[in-house]
Amino acid sequence: MMAAAQPETIFEIKRSSIYFCRKAKERIQLGKGFFGVVFKGHYKGEKVAVKIVQDGSMNPQDFLNEAQIMRTMEHPNIIKLLAVCTKKEPIYIITELMKKGSLLEYLKKNRQTLDISHQIEMAVQVACGMDYLENNLYIHRDLAARNVLVGENVYKVADFGLARVLIKAPSDSPNSQYYRVIEGVCLPIRWTAPDAIVSNRFTIKNDVWSFGILLYEIMTFGMEPYANIKNNNKLIKRVTGGYRMPCPRDCPENMYQIMSACWMMQENDRPLFESLHTMLSDLQ
Ligand code: ADP
Ligand code: MG
To answer: Cis omega (within 30 of 0) on the bond before 174?
Structure first.
């Protein structure tokens, strides 16, 4: 008799199969963010990042369903989801390790050595990853420099889909000031298109708006968007009324035109990621 077919990959894994790297007995922390704490580890002989999600911030079953879709996304500019632990809280999310951490920190740390050709390269690669998600009808919902990770000359989009399954905003985490819960949905206000905030309806065109904000972050080496408008409600009013951020210092006019196109009021007037990718590649 033939043996039953083995599942291709074991996706839900035992916690004990993850090894946490340690220094002086302490787990090595890669970062702390909105979704929880991220540690360095090993899984099946591979270096990985293990995100430990704060209890109560997601429904494990909803997350597992979403993770089944996330795992099918494979592209050089998309973070690979390797495995999950969802049977008990806290939820573990195991992804490939990205040596240089988040793009936001990378931009801030390396502004002296980065030049426009690096900035265009970052934009091209993120657009390429997002073009792939767009083609696969997958909406990110939380595209921002904090959610792009950096490796050796490679930039990958991370944390896609997580905002959709978030049920509670962890309050004491860094970056929590950027998120607001509106009608049960957690929104990064400064990265979200005004129409999506108002209607609570998300399309890839909201991701395109967020991509424009991400271009702004790239061109300013990680400045906070709309830094001069502290109050979020005031910000929503201003942006709905047509206010847009001015061209950053030293940002080429053609790059500013691309980010401005992402911020068109009507979502149908915003470009597709496919054409953003082409337009940005033309700047190289
Ligand atoms: P946020 O998106 O709010 O910054 P995250 O929980 O997604 O929070 O991640 C926290 C930090 O951990 C990131 O800013 C980054 O520095 C680090 N990090 C997350 N995932 C990885 C990874 N796969 N490889 C390396 N570092 C990571
Ligand atoms: Mg993140």
So the answer is: no
Ligand 1, atom 6, lies closest to the CA of: 33
Exposed/middle/buried for residue 107 (C-beta within 10 Å: 0-12, 13-18, 19+): buried
Pocket test for ligand 1, best of 48, 51, 70, 176 (most atoms within 8 A of CB): 51
N residues, the chain = 284
Q: Tell the residue nearest (CA) to atom 12 of ligand 1.
A: 31
Name which residue sits closest to atom 19 of ligand 1, judged by CA. 38
pTM over 0.90: yes
Measure the CA–CA gap between 53 and 91, rounded to whole angstroms.
Answer: 5
**CATH number of the domain located at residue range(s) 103-281 in this protein:** 1.10.510.10
Q: What is the Å distance from ligand 1's center to 199 Cα?
A: 29
pLDDT digits (tens, 9 = 90+) for 76-123: 999 999 999 999 999 999 999 999 999 999 999 999 999 999 999 999
Q: Is the CB of 147 under 6 A from ligand 1?
A: yes
Residues 6+ apart with CB under 8 A from 155: 77, 103, 121, 122, 125, 126, 129, 148, 149
In the CATH scheme, what is the homologous superfamily, with its name and number, of domain 15-96? Phosphorylase Kinase; domain 1 (3.30.200.20)
142 included as an active-site residue = yes
Q: Provide the residue ranges of all domains of the chain, joining segments of one domain with +.
A: 15-96, 103-281
CA distances in angstroms from 68 to 37, 83, 141, 270, listed in the order given? 22, 10, 17, 30
